[in-house]
Amino acid sequence: MGESRVYALMHHEDDPRKCTAARLVRAGEIRIARDVRKIPPGAVVLDPEAAKALSREDVAAVKKFGLLVVDCSWNRLERFPRLRKGLRHRALPFLVAANPVNFGKPQRLCSAEAVAAALYIMGEKGRARRTMAHFRWGETFIDINEMLLEGYSAAPTSAEVVKFQNDAIGSLTVAGDESNVEQ
């Protein structure tokens, strides 16, 4: 099967010159979802409030129906659109942003980072890198998250993605605590 279809539902809440989803549309990497009703039932929606993590379990659905990113402001996340039934809502596991607005902040990804992370997790690593190549800071996103992305992409199920995430965060916390211990 070829590359996954990726759609963006645009809310036009940020500066169009800085909008990463708009840049990816212009570059031909993703398509605009002008009418969410035309997104095929079964498509996977990246939703930070979803109860289930994105994993390789979702590859078949994404290949067949597509992946949807909702491009809206983090400041208005409570208004995240409740999209029609039949779409599979999935959250991305723990990652750190590299975009200039939220650099270094956990879970504050821009649309391009979310799309690239989803593609990477589902095994489209080359396409994830190509997606991020449209941004000066794009390679940094992959670099700082590579260990996590590799682990997530190796996990076959959502439960195993969450387990890897928790183990990875736990080891980061322990390593961070050890540096503060007096000798």
Keywords:
single chain, 183 residues, alpha/beta, five-stranded parallel beta sheet, 6 helices, 5 strands, 39% helix, disordered C terminus
Report on the architecture of this protein.
By secondary structure, this protein is of the alpha/beta class. It has one domain (6-178). Helix content is 39%, strand content 10%. The chain is built from six helices and five strands; from the N terminus they run E-H-E-E-H-E-E-H-H-H-H. The protein has a five-stranded parallel sheet with strand order 2-1-4-3-5. The longest helix is centred in the last third of the chain and has 21 residues, at 158-178. The radius of gyration is 16 Å and the shape is globular. Mean pLDDT is 86; it is low at 178-183.
Give a quick summary of the entry.
The chain has helices at residues 20-26, 59-65, 111-121, 125-132, 138-154, 158-178, and strands spanning 6-10, 31-32, 44-46, 67-71, 88-90. With 183 residues, it is α/β, with parallel strands linked by helices.
Helix content: 25-40%
In total, how many beta strands? 5
Global geometry? globular
Low-confidence stretches: 178-183
How would a crystallographer describe the biggest sheet? 5 strands, parallel
Mean pLDDT figure: 86
Main β-sheet, spatial strand arrangement: 2-1-4-3-5
Number of domains: 1
Tally of alpha and pi helices: 6
Strand content: 5-15%
Q: Kindly report the oligomeric state of this protein.
A: single chain
Task: Output the radius of gyration.
Answer: 16 Å
SSE string, helix = H, strand = E?
EHEEHEEHHHH
Structural class: alpha/beta
End-to-end distance, in Å? 56 Å
